[in-house]
Amino acid sequence: MPDSLTIGELSVRSGVAPSALRYYERLGLIRADRTGGNQRRYARAELRRVAFIRISQQVGVSLDEIRAALDSLPEGRTPSPQDWAQLSASWRSRLDEKIRLLAELRDNLDGCIGCGCLSLQRCVLYNPGDALAGEGPGARLMLPRPADAPPAVTPG
Amino acid sequence: MPDSLTIGELSVRSGVAPSALRYYERLGLIRADRTGGNQRRYARAELRRVAFIRISQQVGVSLDEIRAALDSLPEGRTPSPQDWAQLSASWRSRLDEKIRLLAELRDNLDGCIGCGCLSLQRCVLYNPGDALAGEGPGARLMLPRPADAPPAVTPG
DNA sequence: CCTTTAGTTGAAGTGCACTTCAACTAAAGG
DNA sequence: CCTTTAGTTGAAGTGCACTTCAACTAAAGG
After folding, report:
1. In this structure, is the CB of residue A47 within 7 Å of any atom belonging to strand D?
2. Which helix (H) or strand (E) holds B40?
3. pLDDT-derived band of residue B63, with 50, 70 and 90 as boundaries?
4. Which PROSITE patterns match (chains A, B) (predicted)?
5. A20-24, A78-82, A113-117, B100-104 — which one is most confidently predicted on average?
6. CA neighbor of A152 nearest in space, from B31, B33, B50
7. B81 touches chain A (CB under 8 A)
8. B139 touches strand C (CB under 7 A)
């Protein structure tokens, strides 16, 4: 019963591809020791880090923010359950807000798309404060949100 | 009071960059007539299409699926409010499911990350049936979800 | 000991949803 | 009529989160 894992083992147990694990290492999200032959050997505690990374992604957090969060873990010792709980708690309000916005979106969906009042710029569905992760990746917004736009009256 | 819009006008009223509008046209999501000088002129009804596109993106639907949805609108006539309501209703179950999964994630967050029971492959947080849009874009999964993985007992 | 399986690297590729650029033309204002 | 502002195109670039590839080396099994 070895107490370190090869990259293949960590991959199988975490469900994360080896290439992704190497990528995480490059970003400083996880770490590994090396064998004499330069192969990675992961401490078992890394398994929990990987779990935290994947769960955080579900919450809609970017790898960069996840890295920042992980950096706040204690340096010397293996993080305790409480350390992890504290870390995960920090995603909580984010998750709450996300759920709130989606619920709002759902409750206004028929009405707002269907009706004639669709006054884009002021619509709940249109201006959810860019907090939804559904926005997707890619280059940043070109129009920062036109402040000089007319009140936007909808057609007949 | 012209009843067609230039790309700049449509951009300001919809809050969507001109480059994005051209992109949507290339993908077949919206359409425009052309002036003698080859400039785009949008019918006012396109405003609602753009609104539908942006709202659908909030729901987490890809442009490709949005295109498919828009293709189901009636061909000859301008879509009625009911047409739009029907279309938006089709996102509803998706939204419900997404909200359900996020709520589940929230309710298990502390417990699952903090405790020693974190049994990755079987965890609610880990296997939400790839239905969350939070997964992000990019290349597809390499490991299709290892079926041959051991029961994954956690350390200590 | 040989073969197979698993690992290594850096560089390049992928997919989505765009934006940016260069080099140009059209339309609107004074 | 000239200038400014707004439009046109195709090609290339961007950011994120990875994957894929080529050319290799290490470790494990029989």
Report:
1. no
2. strand B40-43
3. very high
4. HTH_MERR_1, HTH_MERR_2
5. A20-24
6. B50
7. yes
8. yes
Q: What is the CATH number of domain A1-79?
A: 1.10.1660.10
- The helix or strand, by DSSP H or E, that contains position B114, with its residue range, turns out to be helix B92-114
A106, A112, A134 ranked by CB distance to B57: nearest: A134
Q: Hey, which residues does A5 pair with through a beta bridge? A: A42
pLDDT range class, residue B111, cuts 50, 70, 90? low
The Cα–Cα gap between A31 and A43 comes to: 9
- Domain chopping of chain A, boundaries: 1-79, 94-156
State the Cα–Cα distance between residues B42 and B22, nearest whole angstrom.
12
Q: Which residues contact A64 (CB under 8 A, 6 or more apart)?
A: A27
| Closest CA-bearing residue to C1' of D19 | B139
- Return the DSSP state at B122: G
With CA of A36 and C1' of each nucleotide, the nearest comes out as: D26
Give the separation between CA A43 and CA B81, rounded to whole angstroms.
59
Residues B78-82: contacts with CB under 8 Å, at least 24 apart: B78/B45, B79/B45, B79/B48, B81/A114, B81/A115, B81/A116, B82/A114
Q: How far is the CA of B34 from the C1' of C22 (A)?
A: 23
Most B CBs within 10 A among A22, A100, A109, hence the mutation to make, goes to A109
Tell me the angle at which helices A45-59 and B92-114 cross, rounded to the nearest 10 degrees: 150
Residue A129 has a pLDDT of 43
Average pLDDT over residues B96-116: 78
Most B CBs within 10 Å, among A108, A143, A153, A154, to test the B interface? A143
